[in-house]
Amino acid sequence: MHTDFGPTPAQVYSNLKIGLISRVAQNSEFNKMTIQNLANIFGPTLLGSEAGGLEDARAQIRVAETIITYSEDMFELGTLSLPHVP
Fold it and tell me: I need a labelling partner for 54 at 20 to 30 A (CA). Which of 10, 36, 84, 86 fits?
């Protein structure tokens, strides 16, 4: 018998981080934090930063851009209660 207990705390925390980053990107006209800027900052943090060199960093940034761009489709962000930023 398989019982589904829902998302783990780590999954909820990851969704919350991605949701907040996505919300910042949605308000880039006010805060100047575009998807590209956010990916540059959070790529190594979200994907782990091994000492892999410049090519690994570029790949992490591209993956982070994709995650941020498609976060609403990839993660269950609809249930997050994030404050509206005017």
Answer: 10
